[in-house]
Structure formats: structure tokens, C-alpha cells
Design a protein that fits this description.
The structure is a single chain. This protein is of the alpha+beta class. It has 3 helices and 10 strands; from the N terminus they run αββαββββββββα. Strands 1, 2, 3, 4, 5, 6, 7, 8, 9 and 10 form a 10-stranded mixed beta sheet that branches. A hairpin with a 5-residue loop joins β3 and β4. It starts with a helix and ends in a 42-residue tail after the last helix.
């Protein structure tokens, strides 16, 4: 209440992780955590220079604003049906960013929702890591052939019931003939 009277009320924002040509990777809603006046925070959000903390709704996770491409006041972005949003006078496709990707600093890619439906979900782009791993992984020259155990090899153990060299001690009790 006191913050509202002093003009330092937090600003509710939409948190956009990544912006592409016609796609927004949307994390969800958050609240700015600044000690500045609300008008100052709104001006920084408009200019894209806000550098404070953002508390994400639903879990209370606090993240730094530099992790995101844009923080948009709630009134400036309108969610539309069928996974779209209206922002800056145009319509955008929306991909939902899961919490595990909120602090990810690399590029995001979109996939169809694993739960079905028509929604899009963002995930980490690990193609560069995969490419590097494939390049560094040694490759076996030639073809790998699978065969049965001990085929074309000398046996290491005498087969059961096979020839033996000398008497074998028996297990258990035995009559000593004393």
C-alpha cells in the first residue's frame, strides 16, 4: 500500500524470452522488482533498457531482466485464441517457454506441444552441441560384426564335462576310508 502511495508500485509484465520474425517465445507473466517510480520503470520498459529483477508469477522465481528479449506491460500485449498474440500492432505466433528454459542463454527452437493440441512449445537448441560431439567422437574404421560368444577364439575355460588334467577335488563331505 505504501509503495502505491509513493508511486513505486511494481509493474505487471509479459516476459518474452526470444523474438523471431513472426514468433514470440513467451515465458508468461511477471512483476518488476524495482525501487524506482512506476513511471520510470514503464519508460525503461518502453525503451527496452530495464535492467532490474523480474519475479515470475506462479512460482516466485526471481530472474534478471537481461535474460529476456523483452518485458512488455500487461496492457501492451493481448493473447488471442489459437496460440497467437497481438503486440506492436501486429499478430504473432506464440510458443510457450517451460520453466527449465527461463535462464537458458542460448537460442530456442519450437516444437509441437507434446500434450497434443495446436500449441507450440519452446526448447533449447542443442544442435551445436550435438554437431561438436559427433565431430569429436572417434569413429571405428570398417564394419562392426557381431558373432556368438567365443566364436573363432580359443576357449578360456574348459567346457563342462570336457577333458581334465588330473583328479579334481570334490565338494562336500566324502568318505576317507580310515
Amino acid at each position: 500500500m505504501l509503495k502505491r502511495l509513493l508511486g513505486k508500485a511494481p509493474v505487471d509484465v509479459w516476459v518474452i524470452k526470444q523474438i523471431e520474425d513472426d514468433l514470440l517465445h513467451l515465458c508468461g507473466q511477471g512483476v518488476t522488482q524495482a525501487n524506482a517510480r512506476q513511471k520510470t520503470v514503464l519508460a525503461e520498459l518502453e525503451a527496452g533498457t530495464y535492467s532490474g529483477a523480474v519475479r515470475m508469477s506462479g512460482g516466485g522465481v526471481v530472474l534478471i531482466a537481461s535474460l529476456f528479449d523483452a518485458l512488455v506491460p500487461i496492457e501492451a500485449l493481448q493473447l488471442l485464441p489459437d496460440g497467437q498474440a497481438r503486440w506492436q500492432g501486429r499478430d504473432w505466433l506464440v510458443a510457450q517457454v517451460p520453466q527449465r528454459c527461463w535462464a537458458y542463454t542460448g537460442r530456442l527452437i519450437t516444437q509441437a506441444s507434446p500434450l497434443g493440441g495446436s500449441g507450440l512449445v519452446s526448447s533449447e537448441d542443442v544442435s551445436g552441441i550435438r554437431r561438436q560431439a559427433e565431430k569429436d567422437t572417434p569413429r571405428v574404421p570398417g564394419e562392426v560384426v557381431f558373432r556368438s560368444e567365443n566364436a573363432n577364439e580359443d576357449p578360456l575355460v574348459v567346457p563342462k564335462g570336457g577333458p581334465t588334467k588330473g583328479p579334481r577335488p570334490r565338494s562336500g563331505r566324502e568318505w576317507r576310508k580310515d
